[in-house]
Structures are given as structure tokens and as C-alpha cells.
């Protein structure tokens, strides 16, 4: 993707806050990669965002997970988008407001992700209880991330349960998320609202106006989250970043400080 509206002469190509975010994310990924096979691995794993009600969850993970990435491609795609759209916005807003927006959208992405997952967990638990699953079993499955222990607990009940439903319950309970994607989606939304008619080039070849790109991307992420396609991607975290970004921009507009 690329855009064709701005001339580099008036803007810093790498403004201060964008630069710091790029460096911090890069250094943390490098540290995670280098130290992944050392005793520090559990520490890095604890920085991901886990589900409430499990031993792995801590409230501060809503913040720390934003600076973690699962692969180099994950890191590169997020950081490229952060630079491409974020640099333009920071040059206009200034570093302080840009960082505030970035962190609010990041936290908002985590909050919506957790909320949707808790709803899914509740629905799966209700169906399992209706099939005769003991509440004690569901509580025990929440408390262990050891698959062998989980299978043993299920076998001990002696109750024939829907295996697919049990699997969905267990893996949703113990799912985690990392990455700056929610904040990046918030930044893309801000760009689309500020420069709706600017052209963005998909794959550096296909022109599309920013407003349609943002709307289309948001709809795609929402439908993907509901339908469950592209499993392994936290679609509602992306939606959450856009939603909280929109709410913050609307708040700033009411106070007359948005431009």
C-alpha cells in the first residue's frame, strides 16, 4: 500500500514518537527471538494478553501485549503501516496527542477482544452445561493450560460430550493475542477520516480512496470476526482499535481540538 497526497518537504519522514514506537517494537521482538530458548521465555510469554479467569491473565497485559509480535512478518506489516500512516498523522497532531491516540486505540482493541472472547466462552459453556457437563469440569479446564491434564479431567467425567464444542471452549479460554494491529487499525481509521479522498495504492498498484479503504477493511474485519474465517487472527482486536479511534476522534471534535 502507498499514498500519493503528501509531499515530504513539509513533513518529517520519521517523526519522533513514530520512531520511538518502531524502535521499541523492534527491540522487543529481537529480544524475544534471541532469548526464546532461555529461562526468560516464560517471562516473554507472560506479556501476551490472556483471558480473564485463567492463571495466565494479568491486567497489565492489555498494555504489554501491544509491543509483542509473533513473527517477523507480523512485526514488519504492523511497523510498515505504523510508519506509512502514523508519520503523516503525527506531523499534524504532534507527538503527545499521537501517542495518546495510539495507546487508547491499543487498549481499546484489547478490551473489545477480551469482551468478545468472554461472550464466546459463555455461549460454549452454556451449551456444554446443557449437555450435562459439570460446572466443576469447566472451572477446572479454565485453570489448566496443560492439554494432557485437560484431557484427563474430561475423561474422568465419563460423560459423552461434544468434542468440537469442548475444544472450542478450551482453546478460547486459553487463547492469547499479541501485536500492535489494533493501534495500527486505529491509525488507519484516523488517516481515512482526516484525508478521505486521498488515494491509497493496494499492493502499490490498485488505487482506492482512503475512506473506502477504511470502510471496506473495517467491514471485512467485522465479518471475519463473526464468521470465524481466518482463524488465529484477532479480528475483533482490529475492530476495537478502529472503534475506540473513532470514539476518541469524535470526542476531540466535540472539544474542538481535532483537525
How does the SSE layout of this entry go?
Layout: E1 2-3, H1 16-34, H2 41-45, H3 61-64, H4 72-93, H5 95-130, H6 135-143, H7 147-157, H8 163-173, H9 181-194, E2 199-202, E3 206-209, H10 210-227, H11 235-254
Antiparallel strand pairs: 1-2, 2-3
Global structural class: mainly alpha
Order of helices and strands: EHHHHHHHHHEEHH
Tell me the helix content. 55-70%
What is the residue-averaged pLDDT?
88
Which stretches of 5+ consecutive residues score pLDDT under 50? 1-9
* Largest beta-sheet details: 3 strands, antiparallel
Strand content: under 5%
- Side-by-side strand order of the widest sheet: 1-2-3
Number of strands: 3
| Total number of helices | 11
Inertia-based shape = globular
Using the CA coordinates, give the radius of gyration.
21 Å
| Distance between the ends | 24 Å
Subcellular location: Membrane
Family: Belongs to the peptidase S54 family.
Keywords: Hydrolase, Membrane, Protease, Transmembrane, Transmembrane helix
InterPro entries: Peptidase_S54_rhomboid_dom, Rhomboid-like_sf, Rhomboid_protease_S54
Amino acid at each position: 500500500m502507498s499514498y500519493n497526497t503528501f509531499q515530504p518537504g513539509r513533513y518529517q519522514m520519521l517523526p519522533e514518537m513514530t520512531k520511538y514506537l518502531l524502535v521499541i517494537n523492534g527491540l522487543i521482538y529481537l529480544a524475544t527471538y534471541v532469548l526464546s530458548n532461555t529461562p526468560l521465555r516464560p517471562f516473554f510469554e507472560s506479556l501476551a494478553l490472556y483471558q480473564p479467569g485463567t492463571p495466565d491473565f494479568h491486567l497489565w497485559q492489555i498494555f504489554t501485549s501491544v509491543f509483542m509480535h509473533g513473527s517477523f512478518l507480523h512485526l514488519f506489516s504492523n511497523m510498515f503501516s505504523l510508519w506509512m500512516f502514523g508519520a503523516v498523522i503525527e506531523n499534524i497532531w504532534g507527538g503527545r496527542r499521537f501517542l495518546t491516540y495510539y495507546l487508547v486505540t491499543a487498549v481499546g482493541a484489547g478490551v473489545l477482544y477480551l469482551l468478545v472472547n468472554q461472550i464466546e466462552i459463555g455461549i460454549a459453556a452454556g451449551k456444554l452445561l446443557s449437555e450435562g457437563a459439570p460446572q466443576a469440569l469447566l472451572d477446572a479446564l479454565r485453570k489448566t493450560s496443560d492439554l494432557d491434564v485437560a484431557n484427563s479431567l474430561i475423561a474422568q467425567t465419563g460423560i459423552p460430550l461434544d468434542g468440537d464444542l469442548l475444544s472450542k471452549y478450551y482453546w478460547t479460554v486459553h487463547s492469547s493475542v499479541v501485536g500492535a494491529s489494533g493501534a495500527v487499525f486505529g491509525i488507519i481509521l484516523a488517516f481515512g477520516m482526516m484525508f478521505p479522498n486521498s488515494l491509497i495504492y493496494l499492493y502499490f498498484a490498485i488505487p482506492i480512496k482512503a475512506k473506502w479503504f477504511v470502510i471496506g477493511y473495517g467491514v471485512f474485519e467485522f465479518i471475519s470476526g463473526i464468521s470465524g474465517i481466518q482463524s488465529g487472527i484477532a479480528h475483533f482486536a482490529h475492530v476495537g482499535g478502529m472503534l475506540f479511534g473513532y470514539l476518541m476522534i469524535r470526542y476531540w471534535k466535540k472539544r474542538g481540538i481535532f483537525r
